[in-house]
Fold:
Amino acid sequence: MNRRQVLKNLGYTFGATAMTPTVLSILQSCTNTEGWSPKIIPASKTADLEAVLDIILPKTDTPSASELNLIRFVDAYMDIVVSEKDQNLFLQGWDAFLAITQSENSSTDAAALEGQLVKYLRAERPKQGKWRQDLYSYLEELEKNGTADAPQEALAYNSISRLRDLAVTGFRGSEYIGEQVLAYAPIPGQQQGCVDLMETTGGKSWSL
Structure:
């Protein structure tokens, strides 16, 4: 499998956040091209985060994550939908991800970030399960005792997985992808069940 396909698979083959009216409203607000300042993601961390988003969803025959302003969607979603506790957990994991990347590669350049994404998002299921269990145990101990040893790998995996899911949601829900890439019917017609997708849309999924 070539590098481009690996990168596309990091984004396309996993789950996404539910497309609720709130999420759609956030996506619509992110089309504003005026000046933007993050509310949850520290400004000093936006460059690395946007670089990771572009690795997850690179420019191919469709726009990249940065071209679709997906970092604005991630920040707005964190601000409006996510609890303060989970905001802090995400940022803690993001710091862990960068620290691990730096320690294992002596840098956080694009190649190093890409290698870490492959490590977490294409890990074998038992490894991912271990990270999830470590995270749950950490949160339980934190809740019980008020303090716990932070499992850095598990925190990094959690934040990168969450970021990936939000990126996919923002990508699929963006105006450009909805109208130019997916099957789009601004005025829906009749309901037809059990029809061949290739015959009806040329194999494309329906836009929201």
In short: Residues 140 and 167 are 28 Å apart (CA to CA). Residues 3-181+195-201 form one domain. The chain has a mean pLDDT of 79.
